[in-house]
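Task card 7
Instruction: Convert sequence to structure tokens.
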Amino acid sequence: MNRLARKIAWRYLFSKKSHSAINAISIVSVCGVAITTLALVCTLSVYNGFTELIGSLYSQIDPQIKITPLQGKTLDTEEKAIEQIAEWSEVKTFTPVIEENALCIYKDRQRPVLVKGVPDNYTELSHIQDIVTSGTFQLNDGRIDYVSLGIGVAGQLGIVANSPYPVELYAPNRLGKVNLANPSQSFNGRRIFVSSTFCANQAIYDDQLAIIPLSTARKMFSYTTEATAIELRLTPTTNENEFAKKLREHLGDAYRVATHIQQNDWYKWVQIEKWITFLILSFILMIATFNVIGALSMLIIDKKRDIDTLQNLGADDRLISKIFLVEGWLISAIGAGSGLILGVILCYLQQEYGILKLGSSEGVFITDAYPVKLELLDTLAVTAIVLILGFVTAWYPAKFLRKRLLTAKQNEQ
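Output:
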């Protein structure tokens, strides 16, 4: 019965109708579903492309994986569960860091900065040496410690790399009390020379970051074995998302494990905006699929003689309603398939050849063309929503037809 219904529905889809308007409405239905599906695929792929592009900019300083405590500011680096991570085969670089706010003073200028204390293997974790604009990135030379400043911090304080004058970093004494008689004793201070400045093209780093040795940071902020975060670089063959899932299972609910994209708030908001756009386009898709109801209703009227013939040949109401249900689903499936194929082709061409440009001005944009990235999950989500809406809109006319046939039988009896 199902096979017969599919054959008849397929024949009705391409056969000539007595009224040309029915053919036109069917074509409009297919095109409406196809264009909306195409828009869904391309829009979601552009969001993915921008997410990957921005994430690549942050990854020059951000680690691949960052572990932070869910409660409190610090974690103990000598805790057994933390120490074991450094021995995992997937981990290439294990780096405890301290991030705290401090006041930076240079001559007669001062500004707040985010001090980041890092160990000697920090260059193995990040690409900081690739974004140095002046000087040479180093933490110490065996005798004295150095600080590397974001280019915005250095510019506002009037600092140049290898300046003969040190900067002064001050932070409140975390373990002491405020001495009203001598307030200066309530702060821990360090005088440290500038070895380099760097530019990450990100304001949160360039305008506030100061990188110093981890040992100096621990003395300055009164820490011993504590760290505010553990940063990891993985081996090239390790899948970042799968490793993060494994790490969450190992550490439990006491820690937050974030990939390099998830470490920033912009990622959460981009994802929210992406799926809101998906819902809006899905609503437009729902309106487009309403054309299927009109096309099927007119087709049912056009094929009234065929319905009578099928009944005389012994077809029951279930078979007849299923024919038009399959008909509506075919219209949605052809539209969805066409839209998906065209969407994938357009995304591939954009990704490989950059057909759609962002602008013609040189140096204004980070990339010349709109970045795109096609993901399987997005394609499956689009396919699912199109087929579900197509089935619902095809089911309504088929149900109406079955009720009408049943009513006609009752009247005859």
